[in-house]
Amino acid sequence: MSPIFDQHKLMTRRSLFGKAALGLGGLALGSLLKQDGMALPADPQAPLLPHFAPKAKRVIYLFQNGAPSHVDLFDYKPMLKKWHGKQIPDSVSKGKRFSTMSKEGALRPVLREITKFKQYGKNGAWISDFMPKTAEIADDLCFIKSMHTESVNHAPAITYFLTGGEMAGRPSIGSWLSYGLGSESENLPSFVVMTSRDKEASCGQIFYDYYWGSGFLPTKYQGVKFRGSGDPVLYISNPHGLPRDVRRGMLDDLNQLNEKKLQQVGDQEISTRISQYEMAYRMQNSVPELTDFSDEPQHILDMYGPDVTRQGSYAYNCLMARRLIERGSRNIQLMHAGWDQHNNLNHQLKIQCQDTDAPSAALVKDLKQRGLLEDTLVSWGGEFGRTPFLQGNMKDTKRWGRDHHPYIFTTWMVGGGVKGGYSHGASDEFGFNAVKDKVHVHDFQATIMHLLGIDHEKFTFRHQGRQFRLTDVHGHVVKDIIA
Asked: pTM for this one?
Protein backbone atom coordinates (compact mmCIF):
# COMPACT_ATOMS: atom_id res chain seq x y z
CA MET A 1 0.00 0.00 0.00
CA SER A 2 1.32 3.43 -0.97
CA PRO A 3 -0.60 6.67 -0.28
CA ILE A 4 1.02 8.28 -3.33
CA PHE A 5 0.05 5.43 -5.68
CA ASP A 6 -3.45 5.36 -4.19
CA GLN A 7 -3.78 9.09 -4.83
CA HIS A 8 -2.74 8.56 -8.45
CA LYS A 9 -5.46 5.93 -8.88
CA LEU A 10 -8.07 8.38 -7.58
CA MET A 11 -6.98 11.19 -9.92
CA THR A 12 -9.79 12.19 -12.28
CA ARG A 13 -9.41 12.97 -15.95
CA ARG A 14 -10.34 16.58 -15.30
CA SER A 15 -7.73 17.09 -12.52
CA LEU A 16 -5.06 15.44 -14.69
CA PHE A 17 -5.68 17.85 -17.57
CA GLY A 18 -5.88 20.78 -15.18
CA LYS A 19 -2.48 20.06 -13.65
CA ALA A 20 -0.90 19.27 -17.00
CA ALA A 21 -2.23 22.50 -18.50
CA LEU A 22 -0.78 24.48 -15.60
CA GLY A 23 2.60 22.86 -16.04
CA LEU A 24 2.68 23.46 -19.81
CA GLY A 25 1.51 27.02 -19.30
CA GLY A 26 4.31 27.63 -16.82
CA LEU A 27 6.89 26.34 -19.27
CA ALA A 28 5.50 28.52 -22.03
CA LEU A 29 5.46 31.56 -19.76
CA GLY A 30 9.04 30.91 -18.71
CA SER A 31 10.11 30.76 -22.33
CA LEU A 32 8.37 34.05 -23.16
CA LEU A 33 9.80 35.81 -20.11
CA LYS A 34 13.28 34.65 -21.04
CA GLN A 35 12.86 36.06 -24.54
CA ASP A 36 11.80 39.39 -23.05
CA GLY A 37 14.86 39.47 -20.78
CA MET A 38 12.83 39.08 -17.61
CA ALA A 39 13.58 36.87 -14.63
CA LEU A 40 12.74 33.20 -14.96
CA PRO A 41 10.04 32.07 -12.49
CA ALA A 42 11.49 30.71 -9.28
CA ASP A 43 8.92 28.06 -8.46
CA PRO A 44 5.27 27.45 -9.44
CA GLN A 45 4.45 27.33 -5.72
CA ALA A 46 6.40 30.49 -4.81
CA PRO A 47 4.55 33.75 -4.02
CA LEU A 48 4.09 36.15 -6.92
CA LEU A 49 6.91 38.66 -6.45
CA PRO A 50 7.80 41.43 -6.30
CA HIS A 51 4.96 42.83 -4.23
CA PHE A 52 5.66 46.37 -5.49
CA ALA A 53 8.11 48.14 -7.79
CA PRO A 54 11.64 47.35 -6.60
CA LYS A 55 14.48 49.84 -6.35
CA ALA A 56 17.09 47.07 -6.55
CA LYS A 57 17.19 43.98 -8.74
CA ARG A 58 20.19 42.26 -7.18
CA VAL A 59 22.31 42.21 -4.02
CA ILE A 60 26.04 41.93 -3.30
CA TYR A 61 26.67 41.28 0.40
CA LEU A 62 30.27 41.96 1.47
CA PHE A 63 30.20 40.13 4.81
CA GLN A 64 33.21 40.80 7.05
CA ASN A 65 33.53 37.73 9.31
CA GLY A 66 34.94 38.37 12.74
CA ALA A 67 33.48 41.86 13.26
CA PRO A 68 35.37 44.99 12.19
CA SER A 69 36.05 47.51 14.96
CA HIS A 70 33.56 50.34 14.46
CA VAL A 71 35.36 52.69 16.88
CA ASP A 72 38.59 52.35 14.87
CA LEU A 73 37.05 52.63 11.39
CA PHE A 74 33.78 54.57 11.09
CA ASP A 75 32.46 55.69 14.50
CA TYR A 76 34.79 58.45 15.70
CA LYS A 77 34.58 59.03 19.47
CA PRO A 78 36.92 61.72 20.96
CA MET A 79 35.82 60.58 24.43
CA LEU A 80 37.88 57.40 24.03
CA LYS A 81 41.09 59.41 23.90
CA LYS A 82 40.10 61.42 26.96
CA TRP A 83 39.31 58.26 28.93
CA HIS A 84 42.17 56.14 27.56
CA GLY A 85 43.43 53.79 30.28
CA LYS A 86 40.59 54.61 32.71
CA GLN A 87 37.86 52.17 33.70
CA ILE A 88 34.78 52.60 31.53
CA PRO A 89 31.92 54.01 33.66
CA ASP A 90 29.56 51.45 35.19
CA SER A 91 26.67 53.61 34.01
CA VAL A 92 27.68 52.68 30.45
CA SER A 93 28.63 48.99 30.77
CA LYS A 94 26.75 47.69 33.82
CA GLY A 95 24.61 44.62 33.18
CA LYS A 96 25.97 44.05 29.69
CA ARG A 97 26.89 40.57 28.52
CA PHE A 98 30.15 39.84 26.71
CA SER A 99 32.00 36.77 25.49
CA THR A 100 33.72 34.52 28.03
CA MET A 101 37.01 36.16 27.03
CA SER A 102 35.96 39.26 28.99
CA LYS A 103 35.74 37.86 32.49
CA GLU A 104 33.06 39.11 34.87
CA GLY A 105 34.48 41.73 37.24
CA ALA A 106 37.70 42.22 35.28
CA LEU A 107 39.01 45.72 34.63
CA ARG A 108 37.76 47.28 31.41
CA PRO A 109 40.01 50.22 30.63
CA VAL A 110 38.91 52.43 27.74
CA LEU A 111 41.08 52.00 24.66
CA ARG A 112 41.48 54.97 22.32
CA GLU A 113 41.15 54.51 18.58
CA ILE A 114 44.37 53.19 17.03
CA THR A 115 43.72 55.01 13.75
CA LYS A 116 43.37 58.64 12.70
CA PHE A 117 40.00 59.96 11.60
CA LYS A 118 39.12 62.61 9.07
CA GLN A 119 35.88 63.90 7.58
CA TYR A 120 35.10 63.15 3.94
CA GLY A 121 32.41 64.03 1.43
CA LYS A 122 29.80 66.78 1.38
CA ASN A 123 28.28 65.58 4.64
CA GLY A 124 31.55 65.13 6.51
CA ALA A 125 31.50 61.39 7.15
CA TRP A 126 34.14 60.34 9.70
CA ILE A 127 36.34 57.62 8.17
CA SER A 128 39.61 56.12 9.41
CA ASP A 129 42.90 56.61 7.58
CA PHE A 130 42.99 52.80 7.27
CA MET A 131 40.14 53.12 4.72
CA PRO A 132 41.39 55.72 2.18
CA LYS A 133 39.65 54.20 -0.85
CA THR A 134 36.35 53.85 0.98
CA ALA A 135 36.72 57.51 1.92
CA GLU A 136 36.77 58.37 -1.79
CA ILE A 137 33.20 57.09 -2.21
CA ALA A 138 31.85 58.71 0.97
CA ASP A 139 29.21 60.64 -0.98
CA ASP A 140 27.78 57.38 -2.31
CA LEU A 141 27.63 55.53 1.00
CA CYS A 142 24.78 55.23 3.46
CA PHE A 143 26.21 54.51 6.92
CA ILE A 144 24.08 52.79 9.55
CA LYS A 145 25.79 53.64 12.83
CA SER A 146 23.15 52.20 15.17
CA MET A 147 23.20 48.51 14.26
CA HIS A 148 22.73 46.13 17.17
CA THR A 149 22.22 42.39 17.56
CA GLU A 150 21.57 39.66 20.14
CA SER A 151 24.45 37.18 20.12
CA VAL A 152 27.96 37.68 21.51
CA ASN A 153 29.59 34.77 19.64
CA HIS A 154 30.51 34.56 15.97
CA ALA A 155 28.63 31.60 14.50
CA PRO A 156 25.24 32.40 16.10
CA ALA A 157 25.63 36.09 15.25
CA ILE A 158 26.53 35.40 11.61
CA THR A 159 23.71 32.88 11.34
CA TYR A 160 21.34 35.49 12.75
CA PHE A 161 22.31 38.03 10.09
CA LEU A 162 22.17 35.58 7.20
CA THR A 163 19.13 33.47 8.16
CA GLY A 164 17.12 35.45 10.72
CA GLY A 165 17.76 32.94 13.54
CA GLU A 166 20.74 32.16 15.75
CA MET A 167 20.43 28.39 15.29
CA ALA A 168 21.30 26.69 12.03
CA GLY A 169 18.51 25.27 9.89
CA ARG A 170 16.67 28.28 8.50
CA PRO A 171 17.04 29.42 4.86
CA SER A 172 19.68 32.05 4.14
CA ILE A 173 18.62 35.42 2.79
CA GLY A 174 20.07 34.55 -0.63
CA SER A 175 17.97 31.38 -0.73
CA TRP A 176 14.84 33.32 0.17
CA LEU A 177 15.51 35.76 -2.67
CA SER A 178 16.28 33.01 -5.18
CA TYR A 179 13.08 31.20 -4.19
CA GLY A 180 10.93 34.28 -4.50
CA LEU A 181 12.49 36.28 -7.31
CA GLY A 182 13.84 33.59 -9.59
CA SER A 183 16.86 33.90 -11.85
CA GLU A 184 17.97 36.19 -14.64
CA SER A 185 20.34 33.62 -16.10
CA GLU A 186 20.03 30.07 -17.41
CA ASN A 187 23.80 29.56 -17.45
CA LEU A 188 24.87 30.67 -13.98
CA PRO A 189 23.42 30.16 -10.49
CA SER A 190 21.15 32.86 -9.12
CA PHE A 191 22.86 32.68 -5.70
CA VAL A 192 26.67 32.48 -5.61
CA VAL A 193 28.93 32.48 -2.54
CA MET A 194 32.68 33.13 -2.40
CA THR A 195 34.92 33.10 0.67
CA SER A 196 38.35 34.52 1.45
CA ARG A 197 40.51 35.11 4.49
CA ASP A 198 43.46 37.20 5.62
CA LYS A 199 46.80 36.03 4.25
CA GLU A 200 48.21 35.34 7.70
CA ALA A 201 45.24 33.20 8.74
CA SER A 202 45.31 35.14 12.00
CA CYS A 203 42.00 33.86 13.33
CA GLY A 204 40.11 30.60 13.13
CA GLN A 205 36.86 31.75 11.58
CA ILE A 206 35.06 28.86 9.88
CA PHE A 207 32.70 29.19 6.93
CA TYR A 208 29.79 26.87 7.66
CA ASP A 209 27.73 25.66 4.71
CA TYR A 210 24.51 26.65 6.43
CA TYR A 211 25.52 30.33 6.05
CA TRP A 212 24.25 29.95 2.47
CA GLY A 213 21.99 26.92 2.93
CA SER A 214 18.37 26.66 1.83
CA GLY A 215 17.11 25.32 5.17
CA PHE A 216 13.56 24.04 4.71
CA LEU A 217 13.26 25.54 1.21
CA PRO A 218 13.97 23.19 -1.71
CA THR A 219 17.72 22.64 -1.99
CA LYS A 220 17.82 24.08 -5.52
CA TYR A 221 17.78 27.50 -3.82
CA GLN A 222 20.90 27.03 -1.70
CA GLY A 223 23.96 29.09 -2.58
CA VAL A 224 26.51 27.66 -5.00
CA LYS A 225 29.96 28.08 -3.44
CA PHE A 226 32.76 28.98 -5.82
CA ARG A 227 36.06 27.57 -4.57
CA GLY A 228 39.21 29.63 -4.08
CA SER A 229 41.45 27.36 -6.14
CA GLY A 230 41.17 25.08 -9.16
CA ASP A 231 37.78 24.78 -10.83
CA PRO A 232 35.34 27.18 -9.12
CA VAL A 233 32.85 24.31 -8.83
CA LEU A 234 33.87 20.70 -8.20
CA TYR A 235 33.55 18.23 -11.10
CA ILE A 236 32.55 20.93 -13.57
CA SER A 237 35.33 19.82 -15.91
CA ASN A 238 34.88 16.63 -17.90
CA PRO A 239 37.19 13.77 -16.96
CA HIS A 240 40.12 13.32 -19.33
CA GLY A 241 39.01 11.48 -22.44
CA LEU A 242 35.28 12.16 -22.00
CA PRO A 243 33.97 14.29 -24.91
CA ARG A 244 31.25 16.85 -24.22
CA ASP A 245 28.71 15.13 -26.49
CA VAL A 246 29.18 11.87 -24.59
CA ARG A 247 28.56 13.67 -21.32
CA ARG A 248 25.43 15.21 -22.83
CA GLY A 249 24.14 11.77 -23.73
CA MET A 250 24.87 10.44 -20.23
CA LEU A 251 22.98 13.36 -18.68
CA ASP A 252 20.00 12.80 -20.99
CA ASP A 253 19.81 9.15 -19.98
CA LEU A 254 20.22 10.01 -16.31
CA ASN A 255 17.52 12.67 -16.54
CA GLN A 256 15.10 10.15 -18.04
CA LEU A 257 15.69 7.82 -15.10
CA ASN A 258 15.24 10.69 -12.64
CA GLU A 259 12.06 11.83 -14.37
CA LYS A 260 10.60 8.32 -14.00
CA LYS A 261 11.54 8.26 -10.34
CA LEU A 262 10.01 11.71 -9.86
CA GLN A 263 6.73 10.51 -11.36
CA GLN A 264 6.75 7.46 -9.08
CA VAL A 265 7.50 9.10 -5.73
CA GLY A 266 6.81 12.81 -6.24
CA ASP A 267 9.93 13.91 -4.33
CA GLN A 268 10.78 17.49 -5.37
CA GLU A 269 14.42 16.92 -4.47
CA ILE A 270 14.64 14.72 -7.56
CA SER A 271 13.49 17.72 -9.58
CA THR A 272 16.25 19.71 -7.91
CA ARG A 273 18.79 17.07 -8.91
CA ILE A 274 17.67 17.23 -12.55
CA SER A 275 17.89 21.04 -12.67
CA GLN A 276 21.29 21.09 -10.95
CA TYR A 277 22.74 18.56 -13.40
CA GLU A 278 21.56 20.76 -16.25
CA MET A 279 22.97 23.89 -14.62
CA ALA A 280 26.34 22.17 -14.13
CA TYR A 281 26.40 21.20 -17.81
CA ARG A 282 25.68 24.77 -18.94
CA MET A 283 28.27 26.12 -16.51
CA GLN A 284 30.93 24.14 -18.35
CA ASN A 285 30.67 26.83 -21.02
CA SER A 286 29.76 29.88 -18.92
CA VAL A 287 32.28 29.55 -16.06
CA PRO A 288 35.50 29.55 -18.13
CA GLU A 289 34.38 32.79 -19.79
CA LEU A 290 33.32 34.23 -16.43
CA THR A 291 36.71 33.60 -14.82
CA ASP A 292 38.77 34.83 -17.77
CA PHE A 293 39.89 38.36 -16.84
CA SER A 294 41.77 38.92 -20.11
CA ASP A 295 38.99 41.20 -21.36
CA GLU A 296 39.28 43.48 -18.32
CA PRO A 297 41.09 46.81 -18.96
CA GLN A 298 44.29 47.21 -17.00
CA HIS A 299 43.03 50.32 -15.18
CA ILE A 300 40.09 48.27 -13.84
CA LEU A 301 42.40 45.52 -12.58
CA ASP A 302 44.63 48.16 -10.98
CA MET A 303 41.62 49.69 -9.24
CA TYR A 304 40.85 46.39 -7.48
CA GLY A 305 44.45 46.07 -6.32
CA PRO A 306 47.44 43.74 -6.76
CA ASP A 307 45.59 40.65 -5.48
CA VAL A 308 42.85 40.82 -8.11
CA THR A 309 44.28 38.00 -10.23
CA ARG A 310 44.97 35.71 -7.25
CA GLN A 311 42.08 33.26 -7.17
CA GLY A 312 40.52 33.08 -3.73
CA SER A 313 41.53 36.59 -2.67
CA TYR A 314 38.98 39.18 -1.59
CA ALA A 315 39.93 41.40 -4.54
CA TYR A 316 39.42 38.54 -7.02
CA ASN A 317 36.03 37.76 -5.49
CA CYS A 318 34.91 41.40 -5.71
CA LEU A 319 35.67 41.53 -9.43
CA MET A 320 33.97 38.16 -9.87
CA ALA A 321 30.90 39.59 -8.13
CA ARG A 322 30.64 42.35 -10.71
CA ARG A 323 31.10 39.90 -13.59
CA LEU A 324 28.47 37.56 -12.12
CA ILE A 325 25.76 40.19 -11.83
CA GLU A 326 26.52 41.37 -15.36
CA ARG A 327 25.72 37.84 -16.50
CA GLY A 328 22.48 37.50 -14.57
CA SER A 329 23.29 36.17 -11.09
CA ARG A 330 21.01 37.88 -8.59
CA ASN A 331 22.56 37.26 -5.16
CA ILE A 332 26.30 37.37 -4.46
CA GLN A 333 27.57 36.73 -0.95
CA LEU A 334 31.26 37.41 -0.31
CA MET A 335 32.57 36.38 3.11
CA HIS A 336 36.00 37.51 4.27
CA ALA A 337 37.44 36.30 7.58
CA GLY A 338 40.17 37.81 9.71
CA TRP A 339 38.52 40.65 11.64
CA ASP A 340 38.50 38.87 15.02
CA GLN A 341 41.25 40.94 16.67
CA HIS A 342 41.29 39.97 20.34
CA ASN A 343 45.03 40.44 20.82
CA ASN A 344 46.50 41.66 17.52
CA LEU A 345 44.54 44.85 16.84
CA ASN A 346 47.62 47.05 16.41
CA HIS A 347 48.98 44.74 13.72
CA GLN A 348 46.15 42.91 12.00
CA LEU A 349 43.53 45.64 11.61
CA LYS A 350 45.70 47.55 9.16
CA ILE A 351 46.40 44.40 7.13
CA GLN A 352 42.70 43.59 6.93
CA CYS A 353 41.93 47.08 5.72
CA GLN A 354 44.71 46.94 3.13
CA ASP A 355 43.26 43.67 1.79
CA THR A 356 39.63 44.82 1.65
CA ASP A 357 39.45 48.62 1.39
CA ALA A 358 40.48 49.06 -2.27
CA PRO A 359 38.49 46.07 -3.63
CA SER A 360 35.29 47.11 -1.83
CA ALA A 361 35.55 50.68 -3.10
CA ALA A 362 36.56 49.49 -6.58
CA LEU A 363 33.46 47.30 -6.80
CA VAL A 364 31.24 50.31 -6.03
CA LYS A 365 33.08 52.54 -8.53
CA ASP A 366 33.02 49.81 -11.18
CA LEU A 367 29.29 49.22 -10.80
CA LYS A 368 28.63 52.96 -10.89
CA GLN A 369 30.57 53.64 -14.08
CA ARG A 370 28.79 50.74 -15.81
CA GLY A 371 25.34 51.98 -14.80
CA LEU A 372 24.74 48.94 -12.57
CA LEU A 373 24.87 50.57 -9.13
CA GLU A 374 21.47 52.19 -9.49
CA ASP A 375 19.67 48.84 -9.26
CA THR A 376 22.34 46.83 -7.43
CA LEU A 377 22.38 46.98 -3.62
CA VAL A 378 25.83 46.55 -2.04
CA SER A 379 26.13 46.05 1.71
CA TRP A 380 29.31 45.92 3.84
CA GLY A 381 29.51 44.85 7.49
CA GLY A 382 30.13 42.17 10.08
CA GLU A 383 28.12 40.26 12.67
CA PHE A 384 28.75 42.72 15.54
CA GLY A 385 31.27 45.37 16.60
CA ARG A 386 34.24 45.50 18.99
CA THR A 387 34.37 46.79 22.56
CA PRO A 388 35.49 50.38 23.23
CA PHE A 389 37.47 48.97 26.16
CA LEU A 390 40.70 46.99 26.01
CA GLN A 391 41.03 43.24 26.03
CA GLY A 392 44.54 42.55 27.29
CA ASN A 393 47.29 44.46 29.13
CA MET A 394 47.46 48.21 28.53
CA LYS A 395 51.27 48.15 28.80
CA ASP A 396 51.64 45.40 26.18
CA THR A 397 50.72 47.48 23.13
CA LYS A 398 51.60 44.67 20.70
CA ARG A 399 48.89 42.52 22.28
CA TRP A 400 46.09 45.09 22.38
CA GLY A 401 42.69 43.78 21.39
CA ARG A 402 38.95 44.32 21.60
CA ASP A 403 36.25 41.79 22.51
CA HIS A 404 32.94 41.12 20.74
CA HIS A 405 30.40 43.92 21.04
CA PRO A 406 26.76 43.35 19.97
CA TYR A 407 25.32 46.59 21.36
CA ILE A 408 26.42 48.96 18.59
CA PHE A 409 28.34 48.74 15.34
CA THR A 410 28.49 50.25 11.88
CA THR A 411 27.57 48.90 8.45
CA TRP A 412 27.27 50.68 5.15
CA MET A 413 25.04 50.26 2.12
CA VAL A 414 25.23 51.78 -1.34
CA GLY A 415 23.20 51.80 -4.55
CA GLY A 416 19.90 49.97 -5.01
CA GLY A 417 17.71 52.79 -3.75
CA VAL A 418 19.47 53.90 -0.56
CA LYS A 419 20.54 57.47 0.19
CA GLY A 420 24.10 58.39 -0.67
CA GLY A 421 26.21 60.59 1.61
CA TYR A 422 23.93 59.84 4.54
CA SER A 423 24.54 58.63 8.09
CA HIS A 424 21.69 56.99 10.03
CA GLY A 425 21.57 56.55 13.79
CA ALA A 426 24.20 57.21 16.43
CA SER A 427 25.98 55.67 19.39
CA ASP A 428 26.73 57.23 22.77
CA GLU A 429 29.95 59.18 23.45
CA PHE A 430 31.88 55.96 24.13
CA GLY A 431 30.62 54.09 21.06
CA PHE A 432 29.09 51.57 23.46
CA ASN A 433 25.29 51.73 23.06
CA ALA A 434 22.91 52.81 20.33
CA VAL A 435 21.13 56.00 21.39
CA LYS A 436 19.44 57.23 18.21
CA ASP A 437 17.40 55.49 15.48
CA LYS A 438 18.34 51.95 16.49
CA VAL A 439 18.51 49.33 13.71
CA HIS A 440 18.13 45.66 14.63
CA VAL A 441 19.20 42.71 12.49
CA HIS A 442 15.58 42.03 11.49
CA ASP A 443 15.13 45.69 10.54
CA PHE A 444 18.17 45.41 8.30
CA GLN A 445 16.76 42.28 6.62
CA ALA A 446 13.31 43.83 6.21
CA THR A 447 14.89 46.86 4.53
CA ILE A 448 16.88 44.77 2.05
CA MET A 449 13.69 42.94 1.10
CA HIS A 450 11.78 46.19 0.76
CA LEU A 451 14.40 47.57 -1.62
CA LEU A 452 13.90 44.43 -3.73
CA GLY A 453 10.15 45.00 -3.85
CA ILE A 454 9.25 42.44 -1.17
CA ASP A 455 6.97 42.91 1.82
CA HIS A 456 8.86 40.87 4.43
CA GLU A 457 5.68 40.16 6.40
CA LYS A 458 3.91 38.63 3.40
CA PHE A 459 6.82 36.61 2.00
CA THR A 460 6.46 33.30 3.86
CA PHE A 461 6.93 29.56 3.47
CA ARG A 462 4.86 26.95 5.29
CA HIS A 463 6.96 24.47 7.25
CA GLN A 464 6.04 22.15 10.11
CA GLY A 465 2.56 23.61 10.40
CA ARG A 466 3.42 27.32 10.50
CA GLN A 467 4.32 30.13 8.13
CA PHE A 468 7.99 31.08 8.35
CA ARG A 469 9.64 34.23 7.10
CA LEU A 470 13.20 35.59 7.08
CA THR A 471 12.45 38.17 9.77
CA ASP A 472 10.58 35.69 12.00
CA VAL A 473 7.88 37.85 13.68
CA HIS A 474 9.97 41.01 13.89
CA GLY A 475 11.49 43.71 11.72
CA HIS A 476 10.61 47.18 10.47
CA VAL A 477 11.74 48.80 7.25
CA VAL A 478 14.25 51.60 7.91
CA LYS A 479 12.52 54.12 5.66
CA ASP A 480 14.87 56.99 6.50
CA ILE A 481 17.72 55.44 4.52
CA ILE A 482 15.65 54.92 1.36
CA ALA A 483 16.21 57.48 -1.38
From this structure: 0.88
